[in-house]
Amino acid sequence: MAPHKESDVSSKGEKSIFRIAPYKYMHVLDQTTNITRVEIGPKTYIRQENERVLLGPDDMIIIPPCHYCTIRNPVVRNAENALVYDKVGQIKLKHGDLEVRLEQEPFPLYPGEIIDMGEKSFFLQPGEKLEAGIQDVYVLSETEGLILKAREQFQDTSETPPVTRNPGDRWMIKGPTEYIPPTEVEIIIKRYAIALDDNEGIYVRNIKSGHIRLISGSTYMLNQDEELWVKELPQQVEELLNQGHDPLSDRGSWRMARGVAAAQVKQKTRSEEDGAKAITLRVPHNAAVQIYDYKQKRSRVIFGPDLVMLAPDEQFTQLSLSGDKPKRPNVIKTLCLLLGPDFCTDIITVETADHARLSLQLSYNWYFDVGDKSPEAAAKLFSVPDFIGDLCKAVASRIRGTVAGTNFDDFHKNSAKIIRTAVFGLDENKKVRKTFNFPQNNLNITSVDIQSVEPVDQRTRDSLQKSVQLAIEITTQSQEATARHEAERREQEARGRLERQKISDEVEAEKERKSLLELKVSSMAIENCGQAKAEALSRAEAQRIEAEAAVEQARSKAEAMKIEAETELERLHKARNEELRYFKEQNALEVEKLKQVAEIEVSKFKNLVESLGRETIQSVASAGQEFQVKLLQGLGIQSALITDGNTPINLFNTAQGFLGGALMPPSKRQRKDSDES
To answer: Hey, how many other C-beta atoms are within 10 angstroms of the C-beta on 422?
Structure first.
């Protein structure tokens, strides 16, 4: 018999054994007490007959870093963080309350708890619902912010010091930061900083005070009491701005606004963010724009080139000018007033004094004189709403008045002068002025161009045509006669010039013959002069050569004499040197000889003294004078000096006197001996 194996399924087909893994839980209902409890793994749960599994096993709630979740109807815990049960053993709940849980250990949901937010995969239980879904932590950069609103009163500890928030309070937090809204806070909107250049701006309205201001040139983020404000513009002004035409280069594009082309200009719908952008207009060079502030009741004029940015209470002054030919009012719509120089063309009808009606097409050159662009001068520019219509009407009135007093023939001949005089008038010197000024807006007309003059009625046109044909015939005949007379005159002039030319040629020929003779005479004179000059030059050259030869010969003689003198000087120098060397050697030999003789005499005297002996010399010294004389003579001593040694004597020549002739050279001694003999 096989062993019995326990089954996980009861006899009713329901699972009775549940193996709950770690970090899993399940809800079990005790049908006897009608209390639901939580079983947490890891464990093996055996279901009893009176129990029923309502949930699970499911994963516990895991809140990762930087996330949170909101628990509705959280369980009640005591000071030791232990669950609190009621008297029947059911876990107590904080019904209607919310609890925000941050990163922590995995936890189960107890019966009655509902999770609103959090990063977790789970199944909604019966009676549960998600209010706002799963949400992340708000990570705000330095260009982001959140507008918050308090649902109920609470103490906001995110501020230092803490702030008490009352229901309905609005405030703003700015990045960089991480923010997890508590259950008492409702997030209204997320704000982003708007980067604005110097030529960009936005309109911002304070929802508390209603004050509207313009923000430009910096990065700005709306706070909790501000919102973007859309500036409303008149429809025509907005159409002009949306067209994107250059007021200067596209100043003829007003024709496109008529007929079928007008349907192509559509108003662009602006979103709230685009509509809140500041209204700007680029004013071209040599143009002006007037802006009126309806709040301060004053206007300002901007001269180009510049960029205009409207303040919240400012509007552009729209110009409605006359256009077309002939001029019609309210044809040109523009925001910029061109200051010129420019021109306008008009067609007017005039009637002469003889009732000839003419159609004139005129073109006027004009410009505005703004001077130093002071506020007074700038305000004058826009004092006339339709300066084109005013200009054309004023000029046409002047021309009609002048032409009405002029006959057709006079006007036909002098139309330019008559029209210029009518427009510009005459000065005190009865000369036509250069400009026509409108002092109301400093508009000046500088010139009038008559483009065409045409009669209006057919009768006048036929008369004019006949007059023109007759004038053409008369002019043709006059031109033929003039041409014939001119041809005859030119023929006579040609004949006269030919005769004068012949006479002039003969005179020139005589002058040339005279010049030829003069040249011949001059040539002969030059030839004779050249021959004499050549002979003189040859003689001078011969004399120069002879003189140079003599100079060279004298130089050679002087050089020879110099060589001879130098040779003789060299010979004498060498002879004197040899003679000096001879005498020097002879003197040296004589000195050597005398030295040797002196040494011999000294040796002789020394030997003589030694031969006499000391006693003999003492005896001689003590003997009488005669004996001494004899003794000295016997010794061959001719003279002697005996002193006591105390009396000074001159001994310069004493030694030679003592020695007598013994120290004389033999030659002198011989001469002395010969003299004595």
So the answer is: 22
The runs of H, that is alpha helices, within 277-428 are: 375-381, 387-403, 408-413, 415-424
Q: How many Cβ atoms sit within 10 Å of the Cβ of residue 173?
A: 18
Residue for token pair 């130098």: 566
Residue 403, pLDDT > 70, answer: yes
Amino acid at 557: K
Query: In the structure encoding, which two tokens stand for residue 236, read together?
Result: 């025509």
Angle made by CA atoms 265, 269, 274, in degrees to the nearest 5? 125
Pairing of strands 226-228, 280-283: unpaired
User: Which pLDDT value is given to residue 371?
Assistant: 85
Sign of the CA dihedral with 654 first, then 658, 663, and 664 last: positive
Query: E-assigned strands of 429-584?
Result: 436-438, 443-455
Three-point CA angle 328, 331, 333, nearest 5°: 150
For 517-521, which contacts have Cβ atoms below 8 Å and span 24 or more sequence positions?
none
Q: Give burial (CB, 10 Å; 0-12/13-18/19+) of 246.
A: exposed
Q: Which two tokens stand for residue 489?
A: 């005159």
Is 527 exposed, middle or buried, given 0-12, 13-18 or 19+ CB atoms closer than 10 A? exposed
Q: What is the pLDDT of residue 17?
A: 85
| CB 147 within 8 Å of CB 189 | yes
Judge contact between 328 and 405, C-beta under 8 A.
Answer: no
The span from the CA of 337 to the CA of 251, in Å, is 11
Say if CB 334 and CB 247 are below 8 A apart: yes
Going by C-alpha positions, the residue among 280, 281, 287, 279 that lies closest to residue 305 is 287
Cα–Cα distance between 57 and 38 in angstroms, integer? 10
Among 223, 189, 231, smallest CA distance to 206 is for: 223
> Which residue, 343, 336, 340, is CA-closest to 317?
336
Give the bridge partners for 342, in sequence order. Answer: 366
Tell me how many degrees the CA angle 670-672-677 measures, rounded to the nearest 5. 95
**Segment (H or E) for 577:** helix 458-612
State the Cα–Cα distance between residues 575 and 127, nearest whole angstrom: 158
- Which among 80, 108, 97 has a CA at the least distance from the CA of 24? 108
| Cα gap 44→57, rounded to integer Å | 11
Instruction: Provide the 10 A C-beta neighbour count for residue 35.
Output: 16
- Express each pLDDT in 587-636 by its tens digit: 999 898 888 988 898 888 888 778 877 777 777 666 666 666 666 666 66
Bridge partner list, 17: 46
- Answer whether residue 118 shows pLDDT above 50: no
Q: How far apart are CA 19 and CA 37, in angstroms?
A: 17
Residue that has been written with the tokens 């509509």 in this structure: 275
Contact 109, 129 (CB under 8 A): no
Of 303-307, 324-328, 536-540, 666-670, minimum mean pLDDT range: 666-670
Mean confidence (pLDDT) of the chain: 82
The whole-model pTM stands at 0.52
Length of the chain: 677
Amino acid at 25: Y
Backbone φ and ψ of 57, nearest 5°: -70, 135
Euclidean distance between CA atoms 450 and 421, whole angstroms: 13
